[in-house]
Amino acid sequence: MAYKITEDCSSCGLCEPECPNGAIYEGEQIFVIDPDKCTECVGFYNSSKCAEVCPMEACVPDPDHQESQEELLEKKKRLHPE
Ligand code: SF4
Ligand code: SF4
To answer: Which of 27, 50, 77, 82 has the smallest count of CB within 10 Å of its CB?
Structure first.
């Protein structure tokens, strides 16, 4: 399941460089995660980096983007064909 950023985000920017997929960007109000690029860090880390570094606990699983481990791995391969 892709992650999303809640309104608790303080726009500190800590999460952006941590994402192995470049899925996080600065939106108009808060930072945003592109669900097409978020793999829940599958294929890179055992846990979600953005959630780990966020001081506001604003990075949470997005129930609107449910995906299996297999689907997340497929997405990772698509984003990183090398
Ligand atoms: S969970 Fe991982 S892949 Fe998804 S946005 Fe956060 S750091 Fe990026
Ligand atoms: S680390 Fe948390 S508070 Fe900082 S920009 Fe990312 S989501 Fe927002």
So the answer is: 82
